[in-house]
Design a protein that fits this description.
It is globular, with a radius of gyration of 15 Å. The strands form two sheets. Strands 1, 4, 6, 7, 8 and 10 form a six-stranded antiparallel β-sheet that branches. It has a four-stranded antiparallel β-sheet with strand order 3-2-5-9, with no helix packed on it. The chain has one domain: Lipoxygenase-1 (Sandwich). The chain is mostly beta strands and 163 residues long. The protein has one helix and ten strands; from the N terminus they run ββββββββββα. The chain starts with a strand and ends in a 7-residue tail after the last helix.
């Protein structure tokens, strides 16, 4: 039973200019029975952004890292991750606010910095998926097999995510 030491989310926001794909609203990652706020200094979730990275825990790059740390106050364990859904939750500012997610992958690292699990948002690359009050605010992610994991690591080295 290894402790989760770092979670890295790599997120694409769709390029669809007609729908206002980007957002300034809050986005959360749900994992291990907790929620973590994904928010970095400067702009994030901007239209046509490819490979935006959000790191929680060791090497954190988010705002309020102490409050969004998988190592505290209760440590996430790799063995208990499968007991809870993994998801993104979008918290729109009002009923007209929405975000068009273009793709995402989440990597979970264990104590010795080895990749433990990976999750992907299965969204159509050509259209993305809209999240908001009128479209649903939660998108569940799928755990990938060890074979798929290697391909995701390779794809993200180019700072892009393909679902």
């Amino acid at each position: 039973m290894a402790n989760v030491t770092r979670i890295t989310c790599i997120i694409n926001t769709h390029a669809d200019a007609g729908s206002g794909a980007g957002t300034d609203a809050a986005v959360f990652l749900g994992m291990g029975g907790r929620e973590f706020r994904l928010d970095v200094q400067g702009p994030d979730f901007e239209r046509d952004a490819v490979g935006d990275q959000y790191t929680l825990g060791d090497g954190a790059n988010i705002r309020r890292p102490q409050e969004n740390d998988p190592r505290q106050p209760s440590v996430l364990k790799t063995t208990t991750l499968d007991g809870f859904p993994v998801y993104f939750r979008y918290a729109p500012q009002d009923s007209s606010d929405h975000w068009r997610l273009g793709g995402a992958v989440v990597f979970v690292y264990r104590g010795d910095e080895q990749l433990a699990n990976a999750y992907v948002a299965d969204v159509p690359a050509e259209s993305g998926i809209v999240l908001g009050r009128n479209a649903g605010e939660i998108l569940h992610l799928r755990k990938v097999s060890s074979n798929e994991r290697a391909a995701l690591v390779e794809a993200t080295t180019n700072r892009s995510v393909k679902s």
